[in-house]
Amino acid sequence: MKKFLSTMLCAGMILAMTGCGGGADGKAVYEAASQKTQELTSLDASCTVKMNMKQGEETMDVSSTMNMKMDSANTENLRIVGEGTTSTAGQTVDTKIYYEGGYYYMEAAGQKFKYAMDIEGMMEIMEQNMGGGTVEADYMKEVKVKKDGDNQILTFTADASKMDSYVQEVMGSMASMPGLEGVTYTIKEVSGEATVDKDGYFSQVKMKMVMDMSMSGESISMDMDMDTVYHNIGQPVEITAPADLDSYQEIDPALLGM
Fold first, then answer.
1. How far is CA 148 from CA 68, 137, 154, 194, 197, in A?
2. What is the chain's mean pLDDT, rounded?
3. C-alpha closest to that of 3 among 60, 45, 76, 57
4. What is the DSSP string of 167-210?
5. 20: helix, coil or strand?
């Protein structure tokens, strides 16, 4: 358990670097909001993740936060800045990231390093950090819609078997990280709530996931709650680069298992 928790801290450092009705109508509202939000070229969002893990009689809580701003998505002028914290077992790791000009910069645990990364790779990291709180509409088996003033509140449950294959694919990108080789996941329950604003964008997405994880022949059960909030959606985002980019040491990303 302790080995896994220390690995999670390491992975967090690396990656820190998404009236009533239902059925097809609810899915259509969700899918339209998801597509519209993903098409934004500028974004200011924060994500909070809380996990409770249990192995036998031993339990442990892990929490993390990530605040990110992005501008000029999917262009050669892409810029991203973010700050995050991961805490567990009395240990806390603070992380700062920055992306510009084909380089990914990270400051974590008192260390500053950088490495070359193409725009596609950086967008994948952005989606993992800020888009992980959303579920593809095709994975849903029920969506209910209700009005709340100018907003629409969508509550949903997802098909665990479809989410299982999705999570295996996403987490497979972490398989090369030290300590995460051979880790498998079984999704048991997925549910959530999404708020769609008057302009058709997501303003908040909450998701709860219950899963079992197998690592080195041992099983760990995990309850995970994710809450993603989009700030000033659709508005321009101002990004300020760190003043000391020259102090970051260039490394081979393979050293991080990436």
1. 27, 21, 10, 12, 10
2. 81
3. 60
4. HHHHHGGGTTSTT-TT-EEEEEEEEEEEEE-TTS-EEEEEEEEE
5. coil
Residue 60 near residue 53 (C-beta atoms within 8 A): yes
Residue at 125: amino acid letter: I
Note the pLDDT of residue 119: 79
Residue 10 corresponds to which tokens in the numbers above?
């390491």
Cα distance between residue 209 and residue 53, in whole Å: 12
Give residue 151's identity as a one-letter amino acid code: N
**Contact assessment for residue 209 and residue 187, using Cβ atoms and an 8 Å cutoff:** yes
What is the tens place of the pLDDT at every residue in 219-251? Answer: 899 999 999 999 999 899 999 999 999 999 998
pLDDT of the residue at 240: 92
For residue range 9-22, list pLDDT tens digits in order: 444 433 333 333 44
The pTM of this model reads 0.80
DSSP letter (8 states) at residue 136:
-
What is the pLDDT, as a whole number, of residue 45? Answer: 92
- How far is Cα 241 from Cα 113, in angstroms, rounded to an integer? 15
**Residue 113: CB partners within 8 Å, gap ≥ 6?**
105, 106, 248, 249, 250, 251
CA distance linking residue 248 with residue 153, whole number of Å = 44
Residue type, 71: D
Helix (H) or strand (E) holding 208: strand 202-215
Enumerate residue ranges in the chain where pLDDT < 50: 1-23, 130-133
Closest by CA to 220, choosing from 58, 54, 62, is 54
Contact 183, 218 (CB under 8 A): no
First to last CA, the chain: 24
